[in-house]
Amino acid sequence: MSRETALRVPAYLPPEIAEAYRMAAERNVLAALNPAIFFGYFSVCADGQGHGNNTTVPGLDWGQSAEALLWLGRREEVLASWEYVKTFQRQDGLVPFAILPDLAGKTVMAEGKYPLSADERGAVFVHWVPGNPLRTLANVTFLVMAEAIHSHTGDRDWLAAQVPWLGRAAAWLQSQITAEGLIRGGGFYVERPTRLEHDGVNQCYSAHALAQAAGLFALVGERELAASCQEAAAGLRTAFRQRFWAGDHCVEYIHPERGPISSHGLTDVDWAAVATGTASEEQLALLWPQLRDQAAFVYSGIPTGIATRPETYEDWEMQHIDRHDLAAMGRVWYLECWARARMGDQAGIWRSLQQVVAVGRGEGWSWRERYYAEATGDLGKYHIRHYCEYPANLIRIVHRFLAPLA
Q1: Which of 117, 326, 347, 365 has the fewest CB atoms lying closer than 10 Å?
Q2: Tens digits of per-residue pLDDT, 183-237?
Q3: Average per-residue pLDDT for the chain
Q4: pLDDT tens digits, residue range 117-154?
């Protein structure tokens, strides 16, 4: 499908939301496509500057933009990007969380003292932050993205051909589950706070991804793979309900030395537990009334922050580096809307969408990578602009979770 294909804005969107949808698509997600790098390439930032003009980030960013492109009718580009990413998968099944061609075969020092290394093709498998956060993120994204592609194409032949890569990705993810049913990996989609070693968002998303993988494998007759993934997903859910519950809200993470951490108010783990169906019905009954109208998740006018009390994090939780991810981010906003959709809260989705639209309009239809709460101060050096996460998730949320206004 060519770049000139007419953009179709969902007819049920009111004018101000329809305009935002169009701007999210044209000035952000579609603008990030760059066939000069290769057919199917798209950057993290629409201007190709914030995180490089030839980088690919299979850890989350790639999946968010790729699914948005599917909704925008750019199937061929997404399939080409999928083929590119899967060639970087290691034999043991690990997918790199970043592909940085300019760093190929090199090691650089982040913050002047932490090594960041890429293989000979530029694939990065180990994070520079001590403890290696984002460890499972790319494999989860890879499995979820396969489901998104199949959902859009319905192509079982394509799905069957992907089994070798999907099977390895799922097996590697399962290898990170401890005997107690906890997934390793620290911060799932955050670096600081590092959330060593068992992050509640990771636990929820890994259960979700493995359950989706089970369904994909079952569709193509891979019964053993399907059963293995389904069993692993069930074990993760059971362990979450037992180990990640603090009486009336979720434990944020389980530190290897300090134990369960649940002292920062409500967090994105609470949204994840609702969104992915990982919390039990009894837990939902206590949790949802607290989440539904909680204004403290809005930072600087935009959803969704990672915690309602971001100022309470301690320096050791940041590895004594910085407070980089104590912010509102599009990845958390997606979880919020997913949770609201599961709970039938369409009014809450519309309200949060209007907040995101207002911020984007005020910044010339561009969104930043992160927005900080007044309580944590303005960490200005992280104000990367033209970042595609909010616009990509705006498109995903409209199609996945938003019902037409009555």
Answers
A1: 347
A2: 999 999 999 999 999 999 999 999 999 999 999 999 999 999 999 999 999 999 9
A3: 95
A4: 999 999 999 999 999 999 999 999 999 999 999 999 99
Whole-number pLDDT of residue 1: 38
Q: What dotted CATH number matches 17-401? A: 1.50.10.10
Q: 147 near 169, Cβ under 8 Å?
A: no
- What single letter denotes the amino acid at residue 5? T
Q: Which helix (H) or strand (E) holds 209?
A: helix 200-219
Token pair for residue 160?
């069957």
Provide the H-helix boundaries in 99-195. 137-153, 156-161, 163-175
103 Cβ contact partners less than 8 Å away, ≥ 6 residues apart: 116, 118, 122, 124
Buried/exposed 51-68: b ≥16 CB within 10 Å, e otherwise: bbbbbbbbbbbbbbbbbb
Q: d(Cα 172, Cα 174) in Å, to the nearest integer?
A: 5
Strand partners, 367: none
Kindly list the distances between the CA atom of residue 129 and the CA atoms of 170, 196, 215, 334, in Å, as whole numbers in the listed order.
25, 11, 34, 25
Question: What string of DSSP letters covers 9-44?
Answer: --TTS-HHHHHHHHHHIIIIITTTB-TTT-TT-B-S
Q: How far apart are CA 71 and CA 130, in angstroms?
A: 37
Q: How confident is the model at residue 2 (pLDDT cuts 50, 70, 90)?
A: very low
Contacts of 95 (CB under 8 A, 6+ apart): 58, 85, 86, 88, 89, 138, 139, 141, 142, 169
